[in-house]
Amino acid sequence: MSSVKTVVVALLIAAGLVLSGCQSLHNEPGNTLYQQLGERSGIADVVEDLLYLIVADERINHQFKGINVAQFHRNLTDQLCQLSGGPCTYSGREMRELHADMGITNTQFNALAENLILAMEKNQVPTAAQNRLIKQLLPMYPDIRHL
Amino acid sequence: MTPFVARIINALVTRRFILLLTLGVLSAPAAMADIGSRIWATGGVTTIEGSAGGGLVPWAMLGSYASDEEWGGTLALSRAEVDDYSLSVTGAGLNWNNRVEVTVARQTLDLDSLVFTLKNGFGLEQDELNQDIFGVKVRLVGDALYSPWGQWSVGIQHKRQRDFTVPSAIGARDDSGTDVYLSGSKVFFAAVFGRNLLVNATVRGTRANQGGLLGFGGDLNNGYELMSEAGAGVFINRHWLLGAEYRQKPDNLSFAREDNWWDVFVAWVPDRRLAVTAAFVNLGDIATLEDQQGVYLSLQGSF
Questions:
Q1: Of B33, B81, B237, which has the smallest distance from its Cβ to A58's Cβ?
Q2: Interchain proximity A131–B143, CB inside 8 Å
Q3: Min Cα–Cα distance to chain A from B37, Å
Q4: A-B interface: how many C-beta pairs under 8 angstroms?
Q5: What is the pLDDT of residues A24-69, one digit of tens each?
Q6: What confidence category does residue A117 fall into, taking pLDDT thresholds of 50, 70 and 90?
Q7: Less CB within 10 Å around the terminal CB: N or C of chain A?
Q8: Can you give the pLDDT at residue B141?
Q9: Is the torsion defined by CA of A31, A37, A39, A42 positive or negative?
Q10: C-alpha distance from A124 to closest chain B C-alpha (Å)
Q11: A2 touches chain B (CB under 8 A)
């Protein structure tokens, strides 16, 4: 067997192991998205980690200068809670109006999406729940980018 | 101009282009804060023709991780080993603002067992075929992740056969040709058991025989034909993509029929700097040798 074949087979085996690992993650209790995110307290932890990542991220931290951190944390937690089907009501400003003068680029949008994924990973949110939450957030893309 | 002189000029032009692109890739990091901002594994990998995509089919995504305020680059080494041939590809690409991708690739096809067919049937002594491919892809509209209608790009691949003796002997009309393609790509979030699904469709106008390695045009057909290509994959997580691709091909030469290609692949993206792609490929009949199947392996570095 050639070395190329060996590597191909090794990668396929590794992919199979990853796949079977994912299958076992599926059988967790709590099947609504809100439950998978750890309800409001779990979402609050994700948002807190997200805030730390934003502050350290030179691509986007300037867009957050001067915000009321406690209010931002509460509003975003409520928003993600509501979007995931939880018993919360987002009481912040409308997304398009909020981002109107910020001139958010795709680079900045990607940076925030990356930080959100990293924050969810840090809090052991399963991959499927991460994907479902991002799917719920996608309709906001044109409002945030002001397209 | 003798073929020999033409070949040397060709080689010099190609070398210079590769050198320029390499310099561009190396100087790019100075112009950007860090490696690009696009989400992990969404840059595709480097196809056998240099353009970003899967293994055999170009996708609408542009190479590297450059987003709209960034530069990015890729370098890739790939090898396919099927029953009677092996193909090696070296490729490099640059991406400006996730708007324009410029690529160059050198393909070397080792003829292995075809050497005897050529010697006995045509009296030709040739053990490999080389081709250079210069590509440009432009993102027209959309973002594969965020736009409801996905991302749409157009591209060209200008291909120059460097060893035309064999293609000419088996009926190919030209030693160079330009493919034009339109690609649409879209990632559907949480589409398959909560996993993200990538779907890609490409339409290509081409006269190339076996992607150009057997020249362009032929006795059965000498004009452009539209070919459909497609790929789909599931992101198991942000490091692993499992998928398959299909590529329809023209059949221009009466010397040997040409089959469509398909592959099943797994891509491993440990971080933005590295992507490893492995695949089982089925290239069908190639130049009289039947049912060419085998493995494909590709390493890609991003900057």
A1: B33
A2: no
A3: 6
A4: 96
A5: 455 455 689 999 999 999 999 999 999 999 999 999 999 999 999 9
A6: very high
A7: N
A8: 97
A9: positive
A10: 13
A11: yes
Per-residue pLDDT for B33 more than 80? no
Give the chain A residue whose CA is nearest to the CA of B280: A8
Q: Say yes or no for a CB contact (<8 Å) between A15 and B189.
A: no
pLDDT at B12: 54
- The full set of domains in chain B, from first to last, is 3-302 (2.40.160.40)
pTM for this model (two decimals): 0.88
Chain B residues closer than 8 Å to A132 by CB: 189-190, 194
Record: contact B37-A18, CB cut-off 8 A:
no
The residues, any chain, with a CB within 8 Å of residue A41's CB and separated by 6 or more, are none
B38-55 mean pLDDT: 96
Query: In this predicted structure, what is the pLDDT of residue B10?
Result: 60
**Which residues in chain A have Cβ-Cβ distances shorter than 8 Å to B278?**
7-8, 11-12
3-state secondary structure of A27: coil
Q: Do A19 and B143 touch (CB under 8 A)?
A: no
CA distance B99 to chain A (A): 12
